[in-house]
Amino acid sequence: MLNAYKGLPKSIYIFFVVQVINRFGDFVVPFLTLYLTKKLGLSFETAGAIVMVTSLLSIPGSLLGGKLADQLGRKKVYIAAQTAAGIFLIPCAILKSPSVIVLCILAATFFNGAVRPAVNSLIADILPPYQRQLGYSLNYLGINVGVALGPIVAGFLFNHALPLLFVGDAITSFIAVSLVVIHVTEVNPFALEIAVTKEEKEESGNLLEVLLRRPMIMLLLLIYSIYCGVYIQHRFSLPIMLDHKFLAQGPEQFGWLMSVNAFTVILLTMGVTHFTKRFKPLTNMAVAGFLYAIGFGMIGRINSFFMFIISTILWTLGEILMATNFGVFIANHSPRNFRARFSALSNLNKAAGGAIGTSLMGLYIGSRGINEVWNLVFWVACTSAVLMLLLSIYSNRKRLADN
To answer: Start and end of every Major facilitator superfamily (MFS) profile domain (predicted)?
Structure first.
């Protein structure tokens, strides 16, 4: 399977290893909802509000990281932000005050927000357009190799050695930073002697002015926000549902489902990419929305853990389609002097969609119960998928008209 990734620059392989290590140690975020409700004793409404704030804090972090990455360099911003995120998790393993722990988690989330546009733009800088799908695919694969094993360890630590949940997350962040410091070389995208597409040529003006010249990107980002509000339920509503269904075994069952998610990505990404490359990215993303609708919508009607595995596989197929189409589409339609900021906008919409999704679902669970959530998720996912399909049709007609 990995033979498909031959011929990429060394730095891309280093980022693969970095993502494996970093995501293996991403212990805190997947278990944040359960930590707030079961360990700190907060209500579902309060937990939903805190998770919403963590999503919102990643927005200014991402925007600041994107701007600094465009101006100061992608590598420098990555090193500073990833290190800071790790440092703020260490006090959570020592302190007992819930308010201080929550503040430290919020600070770590802010700096993690600055990491993503730096990484995404650095990968785009290193690779020419024809290799970016492979590069982003390998990066995505590295994320899921780490996630395949990390949640199992995190589920055990959550129940038996809670302080190590935070310490392990921090240590893996520091190891990842060390690899980037030693092995990844900063790339100046303006010094590369490669052909630049019309969409990637430098533009003048501020971010809003540049974005307004790309209405397709604006519409895509809007629908993407809705998708993210649906997808975030695998971290918010799903662990609550498992705790409701399986009681004390809920956290470990959630860890196993996250590993099913990761192994599905590892085993099927290449096949899904090969099969769907004949279709337009927007069409693939519309299919992803319908897979979200089926995968998440069925949760309210199932009881066995086996059916939860089937559900996870279905919505993971939607995740694969989004991961292998969305990021490359954005990178290939971003001016290179705004590349990190366009990536930050994607993260902004992801965070906004996640924040709204967790906040509203927290309120919905409090008033209607966890079982009723999944009908609402189904209809929201279906609606957003139809919108994506309409955008795909509009894009095809516009392209034919322009030609």
So the answer is: 11-400
**Residue in 66, 100, 59, 104 with CA at minimum distance from that of residue 84:** 104
pLDDT at 186 over 90: no
Q: 214 or 388, which is more confident?
A: 388
**CATH number of the domain within which 398 lies:** 1.20.1250.20
Q: Give the pair of three-digit tokens for residue 160.
A: 């038996």
- Spatial distance between the Cα atoms of 403 and 400, rounded to a whole number of angstroms: 5
Q: What is the three-state SS of 94-129?
A: CCCCHHHHHHHHHHHHHHHHHHHHHHHHHHHHHCCH
Number of helical (H) and strand (E) elements in the chain, helices listed first: 15, 0
Domain assignment present for 4: no
Q: In total, how many domains does the chain have? A: 1
d(CA 138, CA 5) in angstroms, rounded, equals 7
pTM to 2 decimal places: 0.78
Predicted confidence band at 99 (pLDDT cuts at 50, 70, 90)?
Answer: confident
Q: Which domain holds residue 354?
A: 9-185+205-402
2 belongs to a structural domain: no
